[in-house]
Amino acid sequence: MNCNRKMIWLVVLATIALGQAGAQILTGDQVKKAAPSSYFFGGQSASVQVRNTAGLKNSAGKLVLAGLVDTAGYSTAIAEKYQGFLITETKLSFDGATLEAGAYGFGFKDGKFVVMNVASMDLFSIASQNDDQVKHPVPLKLEKDGSSYRLYAGRKYVVVKAD
C-alpha cells in the first residue's frame, strides 16, 4: 500500500513538472512566424514592430503575443495611450484584472498599464511597476517571473499570468 502511494505521488509530481516545462517564452524566429505584419485597432491598421514583439506559449500550447505598433496615423488621444497589441489564445490575469482570449490594444501611461478593446475603449487600467535593476532597457520584452511573466516596456512592467 505504501509503495502505491509513492507511485501516485511520483506520477503527480511528474505531471506537474511536465506541465510547467511546456510553458516557454518564444524565440525570435517563433515570434516572427506568429506575429502579424499589421494590427487593426481603433478603425485603422498600424504596422507591427516585429523586432519589438514578444510571445509565450503556456503549458497547454496556447500562444500570447504582445508587440509595439507604429501609431503615427492615430489621433493624439489614442496614440498617447495605445502603444501595442495583445493577442491571446488563453485567459490572462493582470493584478486582479482578467482578459479572455482575444485581441486588444495596450499602453503604459502615467504609471498605469491600460488595456483597450479593438474599438479603443478602455477595459481596465492597473498600476505598473518600475524596475530600476534593468541595466539595458528595451522597448518591449517578456521575462519569466516564477509561475508568471513580466511584460516590460523599458523599465516599466506588469505581471501577467497565462492560464
Low-confidence spans: 3-20
The structure class reads alpha+beta
The largest sheet, given as strand count, sense and whether it forms a barrel, is: 8 strands, antiparallel
Number of strands: 14
Number of domains: 1
Shape: globular
Order of helices and strands: HEHEEEHEEEEEEEEEE
| Helix percent band | 10-25%
- β-strand percent reads over 45%
Using only C-alpha atoms, the radius of gyration works out to 18 Å
Distance between the termini: 35 Å
User: How large is the count of helical segments?
Assistant: 3
Q: What's the pLDDT, averaged over the residues?
A: 89
In short:
With 163 residues, the chain is an alpha+beta fold. 20% of the residues lie in helices and 47% in strands.
Secondary structure elements and their pairing?
Elements: H1 2-22, E1 24-25, H2 28-34, E2 38-41, E3 44-57, E4 63-69, H3 76-79, E5 84-88, E6 92-94, E7 97-99, E8 102-109, E9 112-116, E10 122-127, E11 129-130, E12 141-145, E13 148-153, E14 156-162
Explained architecture:
The chain is of the alpha+beta class. It has one domain (23-162). It is built from three helices and 14 strands. The chain has helices spanning 2-22, 28-34, 76-79; strands at 24-25, 38-41, 44-57, 63-69, 84-88, 92-94, 97-99, 102-109, 112-116, 122-127, 129-130, 141-145, 148-153, 156-162. The strands form two sheets. Strands 1, 2, 3, 4, 5, 8, 9 and 10 form an eight-stranded antiparallel sheet that branches. Strands 6, 7, 11, 12, 13 and 14 form a six-stranded antiparallel sheet that branches. The two termini are 35 Å apart. Residues 3-20 have low confidence and may be disordered.
